[in-house]
Design a protein that fits this description.
Blueprint (H helix, E strand, L loop, with lengths): L1 E5 L3 H12 L3 E6 L10 E4 L1 H9 L3 H7 L1 E2 L3 E5 L4 E5 L1 H8 L4 E4 H10 L6 E3 L9 E4 L6 H7 L4 E14 L7 E5 L2 E9 L2 E9 L7 H12 L6 H7 L6 E9 L6 E2 L2 E3 L2 H4 L8 H16 L5 H33 L5 H14 L2
Parallel strand pairs: 1-2, 1-9, 2-8, 5-11, 9-16
Antiparallel strand pairs: 3-7, 4-7, 5-6, 10-13, 10-14, 11-12, 12-13, 15-16
Length: 347
């Protein structure tokens, strides 16, 4: 059996790795000329680490990544709202949460594939037993299947991401009115960070945008100002935050399936985008592993849709809700009281 995968990101490469291990012939068509070499840290939660374990890649993830240390969520005035107890997660699941740079995760998946699996600089073309659209938030495969009605909606927020060459002792997130700032150790001497603000009315040059971020976050509690001052304006990555709405009625049409952001573009507020893309790929490969006829393929894709659509859409909804709560302009006192109470009740 042969699969054609459109998109060589996390979802596409994970699907390719799973199907290759199951004995399928796989061709990945990636329109970029090479693997992406930009991007900041990604949180790999225990479910994603287990998924990589099934591909034989968990040990290499642990080598390339860093365990996430316990951290804290604070207000912009320094008051603590909740603790992020990653030690508790490890005790409960038997696995750490890891932070790994996006290029490292892509390279890890790519290196697990047979030579010639990924074809760079090509759009998805040709026939196969199954077509998988893993072509990201602006998916052409999704648009072809469902039209423009199921499209991206703007949150009105923009995120600036980066990595600085200095370490922080622990991870954390700071919430303010219509803004937030997060940071986490990427290695002992490198820190991943992101800053979220309302989208400016016009795009500015890198130096001006960096100055604007410093003006907004410069008086927030440490290490926020220190991290931001060390950021290189020319290396800041800027993206508008979007989500897919309305949710898709299915991730499958005929012998075509959607995976990753193509299926469930979500805001990054729960740190689950990369994890869910990996799980999509692994689940899709599991379902298709024993398919040997066109009827088998259709049944396998229906099973994939049954297993993945509802969970990922619930996570996307929760991420969007948390994004609204964490960057609320009004009612922050009530929000903070609820967050503190939830933290106490959850231990």
């Amino acid at each position: 059996m042969e699969a054609r995968i459109v998109g060589g990101g996390i979802a596409g490469l994970a699907t390719a790795a799973g199907l290759t291990r199951a004995g399928w012939r796989v061709r990945v068509h990636e329109r970029a000329e090479a693997l992406a070499d930009d991007g900041t840290g990604l949180g790999m939660w225990p479910n994603a680490v287990r998924a990589l374990g099934e591909l034989g890649l968990a040990d290499e993830l642990r080598r390339r990544g860093e365990p996430q240390r316990p951290g804290v969520i604070r207000r912009w005035d320094g008051r603590t709202l909740a603790e992020i107890d990653t030690d508790r997660i490890r005790r409960r699941t038997g696995e750490d949460v890891y932070v790994v740079a996006r290029p490292e995760l892509l390279a890890l998946l790519f290196e697990s594939l047979p030579d010639g699996t990924v074809h760079f600089g090509r759009e998805g073309t040709g026939d196969a037993d199954v077509l998988i659209g893993a072509d990201g938030a602006h998916s052409a495969v999704r648009r072809r299947l469902f039209g423009a009605r199921h499209g991206l909606r703007d949150t009105g927020l923009t995120v600036w991401r980066g990595v600085v060459g200095a370490g922080v002792r622990s991870a954390g997130e700071v919430w303010g009115p219509k803004a937030k700032f997060g940071y986490s150790p990427l290695t002992a001497d490198r820190t991943n960070f992101y800053a979220v603000l309302e989208t400016p009315p016009a795009r500015r040059g890198p130096a001006e945008e960096h100055a604007s971020l410093l003006a907004h976050f410069g008086r927030w509690p440490e290490p926020v100002p220190s991290v931001l001052r060390q950021a290189s304006p020319d290396e800041l990555l800027r993206h508008s935050l979007h989500y897919l709405d309305p949710p898709l009625p299915s991730y499958v049409v005929g012998n075509t399936a959607l995976a990753g952001d193509a299926a469930h573009t979500m805001t990054p507020d729960l740190g689950q985008g990369a994890c869910q893309a990996l799980l999509d790929g692994l689940t899709l490969a599991r379902c298709l592993a024993r398919a040997s006829t066109a009827a088998d393929v259709r049944a396998a894709l229906r099973e994939y849709d049954r297993r993945r659509r509802r969970p990922t859409q619930r996570i996307a909804t929760a991420a969007r809700w948390l994004g609204r709560v964490s960057t609320a302009r009004r009612g922050t006192g009530v929000r903070d009281a609820v967050v503190r109470s939830a933290a106490v009740l959850s231990g």
